Amino acid sequence: MEKDEVYKTNALYWSTRGNEILSAIVLPEYGLFVSEEKHQLFGDISGKKLLEIGCGNGGSLKYIGERKPAEMWGMDISENQIEKAKQLLDKHSFTAKFICSPMEEECGIPTDYFDFVYSIYAIGWSTNLDITFSKIASYLKKDGVFIFSWSHPIHKCVAAENDEFVFKKCYFDESRYPLVLGEGTLMLADYKLSTYLNALAKAGFLIEKVIEESDENMLRKGSGVLARKAKIFPVTFVIKARKM
């Protein structure tokens, strides 16, 4: 499937059924069992300019807005999601500039402008990490920070079967595949962790921190298969990198 078809398929899903099927992961949570409250990757962002890639329904922008930034921007592939984000921010008296675009495409975001670019469970939708990270680097000022989270690739390979965890997918397979959720379909590729790290290095980022461990306090409150998984291997990863 060509990238334009991937964009169309994924935008349609998020504009119609997305939030009904997939719960939005927003700050202070980076994903399953990993939180900003523990790791404090952002630090003091008052007076800073921040851009969110894959802003979805605006939950993370609301969290950022409560910390008094100078400017907030949000990018998303779905106009419907952007409209939800606008409504949420309006309700809480926050403002942001929004752009509807795939993250890999030219879309008018200013360059050398932001102190932080971040993405909560959205970067993995990229059809080309090299292009995506190169563009994100261009948006950041020198020494600007890029923070993102996504489902850990090992998590995608392992399934529960008869009270055991078994490998059901090859870790090295990065081919794109259809993911049927509810009555809709998404197109997704599971990149290796090394693919993310190498793409960051290629784009000129210095990697400052990689988080794979689950937060113990969050894990103790969890239950079910995902909590069992998270006790023995990562289900979420977070990376903090700095533009050199």
Explain the overall architecture.
The chain has about 240 residues and is an alpha/beta fold. It contains 10 helices and 13 strands. It has helices at about 5-15, 20, 35-40, 60-65, 80-90, 130-140, 155, 195-200, 215-220, 225-230; strands at about 30, 35, 50-55, 70-75, 95-100, 115-120, 140-150, 160, 165, 175-180, 185-190, 205-210, 235-244. Strands 5-4-3-6-7-13-12 form a 7-stranded mixed beta sheet, sandwiched between helices. A two-stranded antiparallel sheet has the order 1-2. It is globular.
The percent range for strand residues is: 25-35%
Could you describe the largest sheet, including whether it forms a barrel? 7 strands, mixed
What spatial form do the alpha-carbon principal axes imply?
Answer: globular
Helix content: 25-40%
Structure summary, number of beta strands = 13
* Adjacency order of strands in the biggest sheet: 5-4-3-6-7-13-12
- Provide mean pLDDT, rounded: 92
- Span between termini: 35 Å
The poorly predicted ranges are: none
Task: List the helices and strands in order.
Answer: HHEEHEHEHEEHEHEEEEHEHHE
| Class inferred from helices and paired strands | alpha/beta
Output the radius of gyration: 17 Å
The DSSP helix count reads 10
